[in-house]
Each structure stands twice: as C-alpha cells, then as structure tokens.
Task: inverse folding
C-alpha cells in the first residue's frame, strides 16, 4: 500500500505546489499590469507607509514584467524536459542515476586500461610505482578508511596496516587474498568453558607473555588452561596462526586492547572481527592496486 500511495501522494503534492506557485505568480503579474495611469495622472498612495517611505501604485516597468514572463516560461519548459514533478520522468529521459552510470562507464573506459596494466605488475614492484600508489591511496581513502583510518593505522578492532604485525600474513599474495575474499575471525567465548576464575588466570598468563609482571600463581594456573584450550589456534608458543587469523599474543600489539580488563573481556566473550570482501565491489584490478598500496605502507623505500 505504502509503495503505491507514497509516490502518487508526493507526486501530487509536489506538482500542485510547484505548478500552483508558478501560476499564482503569473496571475499576480497579469493583474498587476491592469494598473494603468491615465495621461496627466500621477501615482497615488496605496496607503502603505513606513518610516517616511510611501508605496505608490505606479505600474510595474515592462522590462521587469517581461523578464518575469521569461523566467516562468523557462521554468515550465524545464519541468517538461527534466524530471521535476515527483515521479514524472521528463521528455529528455535524463536521470541522476543514469548520469552517474554514464560517468562510471566513461571513467571505466578512461582508467580501465590503466588499472589493467597495473594489475599485470607484481605487487611488490607495483608498490614502488608512485603514480600507482597515488591511485591506491585514493581507493583506500574512499573504500577502506572508514574502518582502518585514512592513515591506515587502524583503531580498536580494526588492524593497523602500516606495521609488520599481520593477522593473516603480510606477503603480497596473502594481503591480496584478504582484500579479495574478506576475512572472518572466530575467537570463541571461553567464560562458559573455563569460568570466571579461569578467565582471570589465563588472561594473567597471556599478559605475562608480552612481558607484563603478573602474579605467579595466576600465571601458573593460566598456563595450564592455555595449553588445554588455546594452543590449537594460537600455537604452543602463542605466536598465533595466520591461517585462522589467530592473533600473536606474545607481542605488545593488541587488536582489542591490552589492559587486563579488555583482555579478560576478549577471552570471556570471544571476538569476531569481520573484514568485508571486495572482489564484487571493486573488482580484481582495483584490489590488486590496493594490495600493493597496503604492502607499500609497511615496506617504505630504503
Ligand atoms: C578457534 C580458534 C581459537 C581458539 C581455540 C582461541 N582463540 Fe583467541 N583468537 C582467535 C582468533 C581468530 C582471534 C582474532 C579475533 C579477531 O580478530 O576478531 C583471537 C584473538 C584473541 C585475543 C585478542 C588479541 C588482541 O590482539 O586483542 C586474545 C587475548 C585471545 N585470542 C586469547 C585466547 C585465549 C586465552 C584462548 C584460550 C582460552 C583462545 N584465545 C583460544 C582464535 C582462537
Ligand atoms: C567494515 C570495516 C572494514 C572495511 C571497510 C575494510 N576493512 Fe579491512 N579489516 C577490517 C577488520 C575488522 C579486519 C580484521 C579482521 C579480524 O579481526 O580478523 C580487517 C583486516 C584487514 C586486513 C588484514 C590485516 C592483517 O593483519 O592481516 C587487510 C590487509 C585489510 N583489512 C585491508 C583492507 C582494505 C584494503 C580495505 C578497503 C578495500 C579494507 N580493509 C576495508 C575491517 C574493514
């Protein structure tokens, strides 16, 4: 019902308002023209006066009236040719969406071959091509900065792409695979399995791995829990597993924050980082350029 009612209602509403306004102006103009002074007669006051300024009933100057007629004719002509009245399409068939499509096609025709050329250059080489990296930066700002930040340094839950710490690997092809297909991390919630005490102890152990001073008894109890439950993904050495995106827990780099409370929360309730796939959205050529751009961020020229 709303699907039918809304366009019809708004079309009527807008058309009546717009056309009504235009014809009302026309009526005012024509009726204003009827005021004519007889030869020898001087303009009389209309009775409106303010601060010594008086309104007289002089006729409107013709050049002004004709200009007004012209703008009305222009407005009506414009409304016939272009979509201005609700869902009415206009005789030229122009639409902003259509216009956008044409611009996208033109851009594709203009830049497509260039992107194809870039896409044939290996990622680590392309990362040294300044013109390509300016393009990559533009893609990044438009498509990735909302999550990773315009400087790509990330934020809580969104990894920093400028360091050499990688959840899924920093080799050119690994980066490209991440961007093309997206990534879904699955860090399970451990509270139901190991209880509050367990969470507290294993968090102490995890923090001790990156050199934090933690109570020895908690660390010892936590280590046992870790070896039973966590090594499957994070590894015996807790350095993580890039095939799963399981974070390295021995460095001082934290995706979700490294204070004790946050680490306990991560372990108790789990985390599910989601990196959206870009293959459909951007296409393979642009992703190739973006992969080179991301690669360049942590491989600055010597
Ligand atoms: C099924 C595999 C899996 C198991 C088992 C697992 N983890 Fe994780 N863990 C992950 C993944 C994947 C991530 C990354 C989550 C993300 O990126 O959203 C992660 C992230 C973390 C983080 C956050 C690191 C950061 O940088 O913020 C901590 C802490 C952590 N795990 C601790 C543990 C502990 C302690 C255990 C055992 C009780 C455990 N994990 C068991 C897969 C696992
Ligand atoms: C909706 C938010 C979002 C957008 C948009 C986004 N990302 Fe991500 N990205 C993430 C998250 C979250 C992760 C971490 C996934 C995890 O926790 O396992 C990630 C991970 C990555 C990684 C892997 C980092 C590592 O350490 O292995 C790369 C590379 C990456 N993104 C590049 C990009 C690029 C390039 C774009 C733009 C085309 C982009 N991302 C757009 C959210 C986003």
Result:
């Amino acid at each position: 019902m709303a699907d039918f009612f809304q366009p019809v209602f708004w079309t009527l509403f807008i058309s009546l308002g717009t056309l009504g306004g235009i014809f009302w102006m026309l009526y005012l103009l024509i009726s204003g023209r009827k005021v004519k002074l007889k030869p020898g007669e001087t303009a009389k006051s209309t009775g409106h006066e303010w601060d010594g300024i008086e309104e007289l009933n002089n006729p409107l100057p013709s050049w002004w009236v004709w200009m007004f007629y012209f703008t009305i004719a222009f407005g009506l002509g414009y409304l016939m040719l272009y979509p201005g009245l609700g869902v009415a399409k206009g005789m030229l068939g122009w639409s902003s969406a259509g216009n956008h499509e044409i611009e996208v096609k033109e851009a594709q025709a203009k830049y497509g071959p260039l992107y194809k050329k870039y896409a044939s250059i290996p990622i680590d080489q392309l990362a040294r091509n300044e013109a390509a990296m300016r393009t990559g930066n533009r893609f990044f700002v438009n498509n990735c900065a909302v999550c990773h930040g315009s400087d790509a340094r990330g934020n809580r839950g969104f990894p920093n792409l400028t360091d050499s710490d990688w959840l899924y690997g920093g080799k050119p092809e690994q980066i490209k695979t991440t961007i093309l297909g997206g990534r879904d991390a699955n860090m399970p919630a451990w509270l139901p399995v190991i209880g509050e005490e367990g969470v507290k102890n294993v968090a102490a152990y995890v923090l001790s791995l990156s050199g934090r001073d933690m109570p020895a008894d908690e660390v010892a109890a936590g280590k046992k829990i870790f070896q039973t439950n966590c090594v499957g993904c994070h590894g015996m050495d807790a350095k993580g597993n890039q095939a799963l995106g399981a974070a390295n827990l021995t460095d001082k780099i934290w995706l979700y924050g490294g204070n004790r409370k946050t680490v306990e929360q991560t372990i108790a309730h789990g985390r599910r980082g989601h990196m959206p796939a870009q293959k459909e959205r951007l296409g393979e050529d642009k992703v190739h350029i973006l992969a080179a751009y991301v690669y360049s961020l942590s491989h600055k020229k010597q």
